[in-house]
């Protein structure tokens, strides 16, 4: 059971490491000079993005002034729940956090594998705890009993 849990823990770890964060769709990308020219009119930006995607797009997260959120590094309008990660140097869709253990952002593309890895790690810790408690209460009394059954125990102090 233990090697199976170790493999089950390693697979989502590798998958969450290999699957890079998912950024915004290319329809959200605007060059800086093009966006600065139309940034005051957010409805025009939404219309351009909707035409590119060929579906209606709704932005609920906006700046205090009512403008859309724009990432200067990625040169893209940020969709809802997207954040720029300075360590990954990319805007991440549905970004949860940057995890140093997997060396990657946990977001829309690898969130499932990250949660699966955590679940398997908890199962592995529980298995190890049960195995340790079992060893403590079953095997240690047997060892103590085998030592107490021997009658010729003598304490020998060397040099006297």
- The total of helices stands at 4
Helix fraction, binned, reads: 40-55%
Q: Mean pLDDT, nearest integer?
A: 80
Q: Please indicate the percent range of residues in DSSP E strands (runs of 2 or more).
A: 5-15%
Low-confidence stretches: none
Task: Please give the domain count.
Answer: 2
* Termini separation: 53 Å
Order of helices and strands: HHHEEEEEEH
Task: Categorize the overall geometry.
Answer: rod-shaped
Q: What is the oligomer described by this structure?
A: single chain
Strand order of the largest sheet: 1-2
Overview of the structural elements:
This protein is mainly alpha-helical and 160 residues long. The chain folds into 2 domains: 71 residues, no CATH class; 58 residues, no CATH class. It is 46% helix and 10% strand. It contains 4 helices and 6 strands. The strands form 3 sheets. Strands 1-2 form a two-stranded antiparallel sheet. It has a two-stranded antiparallel sheet with strand order 3-4. It has a two-stranded antiparallel ribbon with strand order 5-6. A hairpin with a 4-residue loop joins strand 1 and strand 2. It starts with a helix and ends in a 12-residue tail after the last helix.
């Amino acid at each position: 059971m233990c090697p199976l849990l170790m493999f089950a823990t390693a697979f989502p770890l590798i998958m969450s490491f290999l699957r890079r964060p998912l950024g915004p769709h290319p329809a959200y990308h605007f060059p800086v000079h093009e966006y600065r020219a139309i940034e005051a009119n957010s409805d025009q930006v939404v219309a351009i993005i909707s035409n590119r995607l060929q579906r209606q797009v709704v932005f609920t997260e906006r700046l205090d002034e009512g403008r859309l959120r724009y990432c200067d590094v990625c040169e893209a309008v940020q969709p809802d729940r997207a954040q720029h990660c300075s360590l990954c140097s990319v805007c991440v869709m549905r970004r949860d956090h940057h995890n140093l253990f997997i060396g990657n952002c946990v977001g829309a593309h690898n969130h499932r594998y990250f949660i699966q890895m955590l679940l398997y790690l908890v199962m592995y810790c529980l298995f190890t705890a049960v195995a340790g408690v079992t060893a403590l209460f079953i095997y240690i009394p047997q060892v103590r009993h085998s030592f107490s059954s021997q009658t010729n125990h003598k304490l020998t102090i060397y040099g006297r």
